[in-house]
Amino acid sequence: MSDVFPERALPAGPITLRPFTAGDVEDTRTACTDEVIQRWIPLPRPYSAEAAVDWCTKTAHTRRESGDGIHFVIGDAADGRLLGAIGLRRTDWDDLVTEVRYWVAPWARGRGIAARATRALGQWLLIEQGFERLELRAAVGNIPARKTAVKAGLHREGILRNAGRLHGGRVDVVLYALTRSDP
Ligand SMILES: CC(C)(COP(=O)(O)OP(=O)(O)OC[C@H]1O[C@@H](n2cnc3c(N)ncnc32)[C@H](O)[C@@H]1OP(=O)(O)O)[C@@H](O)C(=O)NCCC(=O)NCCS
């Protein structure tokens, strides 16, 4: 098994998962300063223009090259505009387990885009990449993220006490997972 995910685009109906480019800097910065995203993901705060440039042109790519995971823009299939982001991280190449995390920009919420992206990424991971398990950790209070996990076909497995870190402090998280033997 390779220890780096191949760079590629994944089409999924009205959206396409694709690599970050310099053209995504402005939308990434706007989205990552959104208070809902800042509440549930401990991104740099304030989220500077430099942070957006660094993420889109460098860090999103070096994280893949390091073997940690892979990071995609959730793009509009029609015009390519950034609607959100989804990524894999903390990949365990021995056990073939990895963790998904996502956000959807304020201008694209309410259409179930994160669930669609998670399903597409999960299929690619478990079928094409031969992984055994995809995990998602959502803060207990993050209802939209938890509903998204279930809608994407992940199963709730339990509560991990004090396992999450947000800007607001430590939180319990709900663990969801999709395994290769799930229907
Ligand atoms: C989680 C997130 C990605 C979902 O975005 P989305 O794909 O546009 O999801 P939707 O807005 O379509 O909502 C998903 C579900 O949550 C529900 N929901 C949305 N806002 C809600 C709220 N404030 N309270 C309760 N339910 C809510 C929706 O009704 C929908 O459920 P349904 O399918 O049963 O109708 C988005 O809210 C987000 O970016 N949040 C901040 C970042 C984050 O929390 N990431 C996850 C870290 S694990």
TrEMBL record:
State the CDD domains in the record: NAT_SF
Supply the alphabetized keyword list: Transferase
One of its Pfam families is Acetyltransf_3
Residue ranges of domain N-acetyltransferase in the record = 15-181
PROSITE patterns reported for this sequence: GNAT
For molecular function, the Gene Ontology terms on record are: protein N-terminal-serine acetyltransferase activity; protein-N-terminal-alanine acetyltransferase activity
Its GO CC terms are: cytoplasm
Q: Which InterPro entries match?
A: Acyl_CoA_acyltransferase, GNAT_dom, Ribosomal_N-acetyltransferase
- What's the protein name? N-acetyltransferase
| Organism in which the protein naturally occurs | Embleya scabrispora
